[in-house]
Amino acid sequence: MNKLFLAITVFFTLNLFAQEKNAPQFLTENESKYTFSETVDSLSRLGNRNGWKIVAIHDLQKSLKKNGKEVLPVNIIEFCNPEYSYEVLKEDNYKTVSALMPCRISVYEKSDGKTYISRINPEFLSASFGNVKNSPMAKAIGDVENILSRLLK
Hints:
The protein is an alpha+beta fold. The protein has a single domain, classed as TT1751-like domain (TATA-Binding Protein), CATH 3.30.310.70. The chain has helices at about 1-20, 35-50, 60-65, 80-90, 120-130, 135-150; strands at about 25-30, 55-60, 75-80, 105-110, 115-120. A 5-stranded antiparallel sheet has the order 1-5-4-3-2. Helix 4 (about 80-90) runs antiparallel to helix 6. It is globular, with a radius of gyration of 16 Å. About 20% of the residues are buried. This is DUF302 domain-containing protein. Keywords: Signal.
């Protein structure tokens, strides 16, 4: 638990530092071209076609409803690509990145009736991890962004 807390603290601290330097933000958000359910279905389908496995889909609206709280639809989708995961985890230099695994993408509806997709900003990750173009992390980020680009306005 202490390692997870440390990882979260480091990333939020980096984000605050990035804000001061006009660097990329920690999280990014884009509007989807599709409805909430179409976005979740398309993301799942496109991920599977491109070697990504759905580890879990967390339905936060449903979870909160069980506790008497009403919110608009929110799903957190956890993706894993075994090839990228192996490349990251086999090297000691990359193991700190495991705190960000599997890749998490949030799909949600806002009160404006539109659907949005958020995730860790790839520019932030590139800046944080040295922008090594051939690193497994850079390849995974590029692959996820390619999949998402088909859904974004």
